[in-house]
């Protein structure tokens, strides 16, 4: 069974910026979400995928992710996501394991989160100095909840700033 074991953290400072080895521009579209399960389409640079993810059990959930044609992903983002498309730049940083710093744009502009995927749930982590509070199990930091909050906060069509980082 394919598992995603991921932990999320707030970012405490900009110390990560000088050690980025790669940047990836990502468009994530939520197709459906029911009871913690979700279907997501993603374009990461020129690669397109569709993923089905189960409800989380702590940092663990099942994840089925498949490559799809880029044109199909574009059409899904345009027609199936009801405006729930998030934009971010993912910064890749090797630090013991590979860390991702996601810097959101668009409706979540200003949100910066660090993520790390693990091989097993009890894997020991060497936390870099730029990593802040862990938010893996905090529902406030799930993308769908952050996006809903921003939509609620929209004053006459303009996104309000959310101090997450």
Features:
165 residues; eight-stranded antiparallel beta barrel
Outline: globular
Distance between the termini: 34 Å
Sketch the major β-sheet: 8 strands, antiparallel, barrel
| Structural class determined from secondary elements | mainly beta
The residue fraction in helices comes out at: 10-25%
How are the strands of the largest sheet arranged? 1-5-4-3-2-6-7-8
Task: Work out the helix count.
Answer: 2
Mean pLDDT: 89
Order of helices and strands: EEEEEHEEEEH
Count of individual beta strands: 9
Q: Would you identify the regions where 5 or more consecutive residues have pLDDT less than 50?
A: 154-165
**How large is the share of residues in beta strands?**
over 45%
Please tell me how large the radius of gyration is: 16 Å
Protein model, in words:
By secondary structure, the chain is mainly beta. It has 2 helices and 9 strands. It has helices at residues 70-79, 143-152, and strands at 3-11, 22-34, 37-44, 47-53, 60-67, 85-95, 97-105, 112-117, 131-134. It starts with a strand and ends in a 13-residue tail after the last helix. The model is unreliable at 154-165 (pLDDT under 50).
């Amino acid at each position: 069974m394919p598992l995603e074991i991921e932990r999320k953290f707030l970012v405490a400072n900009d110390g990560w910026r000088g050690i980025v080895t790669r940047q990836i521009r990502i468009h994530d579209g939520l197709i459906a979400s029911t009871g913690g399960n979700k279907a997501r389409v993603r374009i990461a640079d020129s690669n397109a995928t569709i993923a089905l993810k189960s409800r989380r059990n702590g940092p663990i959930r099942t994840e089925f992710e498949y490559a799809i044609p880029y044109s199909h992903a574009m059409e899904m983002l345009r027609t199936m996501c009801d405006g729930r498309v998030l934009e971010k730049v993912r910064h890749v940083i090797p630090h013991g394991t590979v860390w991702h710093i996601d810097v959101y744009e668009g409706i979540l502009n200003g949100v910066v989160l660090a993520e790390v995927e693990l091989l097993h749930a009890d894997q020991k982590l060497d936390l870099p100095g730029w990593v802040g509070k862990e938010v893996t199990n905090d529902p406030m930091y799930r993308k769908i909840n952050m996006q809903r909050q921003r939509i609620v906060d929209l004053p006459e069509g303009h996104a309000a700033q959310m101090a997450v980082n």
